[in-house]
Design brief:
The chain contains 9 helices and 6 strands; from the N terminus they run H-E-H-H-E-H-E-H-E-H-H-H-E-E-H. The chain is of the alpha/beta class. The chain has a single domain, classed as Undecaprenyl pyrophosphate synthetase (3-Layer(aba) Sandwich). It has a 6-stranded parallel beta sheet, with helices on both faces. Helix 5 (122-134) links the parallel strand 3 and strand 4 (142-149). Helix 1 runs parallel beside helix 9 (234-246) and helix 2 (35-41) crosses helix 3 (46-66). It is globular, with a radius of gyration of 19 Å. The chain starts with a helix and ends in a 7-residue tail after the last helix.
């Protein structure tokens, strides 16, 4: 072990000691950005960046497990990403499918698909459904995998499901319009029944939301990290948690 490794480990331990368990987020959501730029930096195929990003996602879940984070949401593929060229999209979907299978086979986490499965290729949708079924009884950390996800699409789907529910009950449209609440819509989101994210982390230096959890992140704290996702380190995660713990959450008040 070199001197730099020793210094890194000591710094990480010092960061971890600074974390207050009482101010730790219960739900962490992550935008895994920068995989393609990481690959370009090495002159490597784009798929190698996505593969490195998938490996980092598994490593990240291990870090969250160690700190008893209850819920983690990974933004893996947006509805906009589905318009990427086929020579990039097909390998990317294969990498995502491999990641989902690995998460399910680990038996450590409950895997929950977050997204519009009907817009995905049948094979990808099937892998997601099988992972959810296989881990349904796992009681440990809940891992949302956002694949084929769009924030506006989610809200539209939730409203559509709510209207359909009342249509089946015979509720007049005028009555529904007069009584509908934010809680009614929330009950039909992809993440229904889950706590909203306390902390949203975005890698790669970009500072935008990209439609990620538009409804759920209304009062979330954001942390933007310069590192490209495959280069995201344990100390970067600890810094994000330290930053979160130092903030006074106001929940819009």
């Amino acid at each position: 072990m070199g001197l730099s490794d020793v210094i890194y480990r000591l710094y990480g331990r010092n960061l971890q000691r600074q974390l207050d368990p009482a101010r730790r987020p219960g739900h962490v959501a992550v935008i895994l950005d920068g995989n393609r730029r990481w690959a370009r930096g090495f002159g490597a195929p784009t798929a190698s960046g996505h593969q490195a990003g998938a490996q980092k996602a598994q490593e990240f879940l291990g870090w969250c497990d160690e700190l008893d984070i209850n819920v983690v949401t990974l933004f893996l593929l947006s509805t906009d990403n589905l318009r990427r060229p086929e020579d990039e999209l097909v390998p990317l979907l294969g990498i995502i499918e491999g990641l989902i299978k690995d998460l399910a086979s680990a038996g450590r986490w409950r895997v929950h698909p977050v997204g519009a499965l009907d817009v995905l290729p049948d094979r990808t949708a099937t892998v997601l459904k099988q992972a959810a079924d296989a881990t349904r009884d796992v009681k440990d950390m809940h891992v949302n995998v956002a694949v084929g996800y769009g924030g506006r699409q989610e809200i539209a789907d939730a409203v559509r499901a709510l209207v359909q529910e009342h249509a089946e009950k015979g509720t007049p449209l005028e009555e529904l319009a007069a009584t509908i609440t934010a809680e009614d819509i929330a009950r039909h989101l992809y993440t229904k029944g889950q706590p909203d994210p306390d902390l949203v982390i975005r890698a790669s230096g970009e500072q935008r939301q990209s439609g990620f959890l538009l409804w759920q992140s209304a009062n979330s704290e954001y942390y933007f990290c310069e590192a490209l996702w495959p280069d995201f380190r344990h100390v970067d995660f600890l810094r994000a948690l330290r930053s979160y713990g130092e903030r006074e959450r106001r929940y819009g008040q």
